[in-house]
Amino acid sequence: MDNILVARSSMPSLNEYIDEIKELWETHWLTNMGVKHRQLQNELKEYLGVPNIDLLTNGHMALELTMQALNLQGEVITTPFTFASTTHAIVRNGLTPIFCDINPVDFTIDVNKIESLITDRTCAIVPVHVYGNICNIEEIERIAHKYDLKVIYDAAHAFGETYNGEGVGTFGDVSCFSFHATKVFNTIEGGAVCFDDPDFGVRIYRLKNFGIRGPEIVDGVGANAKMNEFCAAMGICNLKHVEEEIKKRKSVVEHYRNCLEGIEGIQLNQIQENVKSNYAYFPIVIDEKKFGSSRNQVFEKLADAGIGARKYFYPLTNTFECFHREYDVSLTPIALHISKRVLTLPLYADLAIEDVDAICKIIIQCKDGC
Ligand code: T4K
User: Ligand 1 centre from 310 Cα, in Å?
Assistant: First the structure.
């Protein structure tokens, strides 16, 4: 068996991509909101069912510039069970992350614990649709409304999902997507913000282009976060195949479920009601006492066989060295518990069913000791 990694980029055929980028050799227009950028933006707006969208260089800049564009100040309630990006975007904006625990069922923010963390310095909530599991949108909306807080969803894992038939990008003030190479839909590197308020759209557009308002006016301290034409062209190609890709992911996930369902000590990712899933990740949580082997032992056994499962998301962001123990991890006990037990198994559209079988076999062999 060849090495199998946790993800594998979806790619169009080489000819399809060449056809899409050919005209760039005629126009010599390679970046700065060109034809491909505009086309992809329009197509994604429709596909995601959102009122407004802007494209950026990556999901991280989507988060970082969103917080800047909303002029946030003070404390932001978020979770530590996420990729570095979510927390770093908050800290890099000079904001203070206040870590809320997650719920043990779908690993999203525990809405019952948000209100006790709100102070007169709280300005926003940044929940994460982790693994594509949709947060408790109604409750977050209720709390945000009650305390007049902004809501920025980290929707990096939730591309194309719907909740009660509505695109996930329509919830909160802003939803930030990632189109990284490892995601369900990729533009090589890329990201987007989805939002309702046109004024926010003006601000984010300027911030992604150095704060330039007009040829002779620069009235914002912006960054450079423009998606280039080659990335946009990759997105145009990949978008044509994304439904098929999600279908293939679904059958991989169903096969995993069939193989691993009901094994004592293994918790599978929950299937959410009213959610059209994109099958972004397949996490399992291993309870050593019941399963007989630890997450780390299973991880090592898989690695020995050339299978690159990943510990997304371990360590928690509130334990990162760069924060020098500034945050008290005992305040997020469920997140800590899950992060020590979670393993994200390989998942991509072309993962062969025989490979899923082989992965599951190794895991099952670890039952009652590796
Ligand atoms: N918020 C959340 C919740 C996120 O998860 C992320 C990103 C962001 C925000 C920020 O979005 P971006 O700024 O990235 O757009 C990967 C991705 O780089 C990252 O995008 C992703 N989350 C995170 C969960 O996973 P690493 O460091 O684990 O990636 P790496 O290089 O180890 O790749 C993982 C596997 O993917 C490889 O084993 C093989 C495969 N792969 C990788 C690359 C780079 C490919 O098939 N093709 C490739 O080009 O972070």
Answer: 11
